[in-house]
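Researcher: Re-running this chain for the archive, since the previous output was lost when a drive failed. Same request as before.
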Amino acid sequence: MTAELVRGQNHPLSQVRLEIRISAGKPVVATAVLGDESGRIHGVEWVAHPGVPTLPGLEVSRQAAADHRLAVDLDAMPTAVHRVGVVLALPTGVGGPAGFGSVAAPFVAVTGLDGAEIATFTLTGLDTESAVVALELYRRQGAWKVRAVGQGYAGGLAELLTDQGLPQAHRLASEINEAVVRGLARSVPAPPRTPEGDRSRQTAASALGPEQSGSPYGSPNTPGQGTHGAQGISGSPEPAQSASAAGGPIDYSHPRRQNTAPPPPPPTAPPAQPGEPARPVAGDATGWSMEERLYNQVWGMFEDLARSTAAYRSAVDFADTRMEKELDQVLSDPRSRIGGQGDAAREAAQAKHSLLVDQAREALDRDLGQLGAEADVVEPALPAAYARWDNPVWHAYRVPMEMPMALRLGDLHVPESEPLRIPMLVRLPLERGLWIDSGRTGSSDGLFADSHDMRRLAMESAVAHTARLLAVHPVGEFTVHVLDPAGSGARELSPLVRSGVLAAPPAAGAAGVAAVLGQLTERVDLVQMAVRGGVADSLPPGFDTAQQLLVVNDFPHGFDDRAVTQLRYLADEGPAVGVHLMMVADREDAAGYGPLLDPLWRGLLRLTPVADDHLADPWVGHAWTYEPALAPVGSQVLQQVLAQVAAARTNYS
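Model: Regenerated structure tokens:
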């Protein structure tokens, strides 16, 4: 049950991995401050803000936005940290409101990883304050609790941080505001919104019903996927406030009064006729935005298919076991092995088996029919990041203003549901590198493809994944490097090269491999030192702060021992500081290194360029068949999307 807190009230936390959701109606800056037992901040390295969004066990948004998600892992907090304060501030110098009294009351919710709300707090009674400590998580006698604070400061972030005991408060406040202003300056205009195509995040209500709680999507096939804050300006519409529009005061007298417009309710289907199943509707899952609702709906479809298939297989196994037992009983009696009595017993056992299997199949077909009908309405409604390349949404593609929650890497299905495909979504930013396996697979498709064809298909798959990653990131927020030592992937890489979306032409030869790996390794070292030392502003001038992707073709060709060590380092340490790896390789080609590279392969998410049932699901014991997300043969959608990405980069520059 959700605890609706009032100022000063606390509530115990039964989970250590949390998500803090913030909805303010206007763009605000969300930061988090770490404190010791007395609440004192030891230094600037104890503050997570848009300039330094990640600290151990903590991640905040990189820009000012109307809606935020903050990820918290209390077990990963340093032992010296006893308090985590969530701070909201109005950005200065951008023409926004000067105090929280002139905007809708911010709403804050603490949720678990399943999306269920643990505690909520509506910050009422604010006036000229431009910065406020919304709530704090604190440790008391080894247990964590959440307290609603709501303490505002008219002097803004500088006054708030000074009150928290930080000597460099004014300097840090200026750095935070500069980072926010830079983020706003780098944003590109949003595409025109239409009522049926609006994917913007909506403002949350101060008192949400249970039907509005969401659950983050983390596929069992991609373990370790955590939750991450939404970044960038949401572009949310203004909440409806008739009193404010008329110039009168807004009444915030009671914390349970609805002060902001709630997220639009999920669409509902027309009522079904008696005896008919409910008609599916796209976006009828829980969530705070259409994107999140569709994400949760896809995950729900995945779970439903997994459960239905597991139930069918269990029923068939039971029928097989029962028939074997009955036949054993018949055969164990010498009198029943001859004559009509034995034949009748065997026929009866087989009839029972057929009846049980038919009943199980009937139930499975019914579930598959409902899931198929749901997929028919969900697939056309998916945003670009979740959609297949043949979805018409790509024809209306515009470079986004913020990174989506997740990315589609392909489709999943099981043999019992051959026509039904479930999108395979992974959370962004990527927490694991990708390995496009160019070796032989166990699928029937792979049996008829020679090694040359498999390498070609693997590179085409890698280019499609790379293009999608470029397309779903805001302009200037994603940089791609390519290693093609022998130049064997030149033909497949031509869409990326011709469009000009690569940071540089594909690096060739051992010298090119060494140069790119050295550059990215140095980047990881610099960012790690800056984050750990709390001096992110000391990075070299012109340092590219965008996420980095390294695409490696034909590994280990062109790699010496030093290059292999650097590659392993990037795979292990890179994702935490925004350096990601995509390898196109056959594991057998690297067999000469022995077990040295085993941790590298295990740390990557293996994908295949053809359909293959290699993704193990420990939840229900299935092996899911994966099919890559490729552009239709002869389609120009890939080139058109890359051209728009390149044009947006030119305008941005």
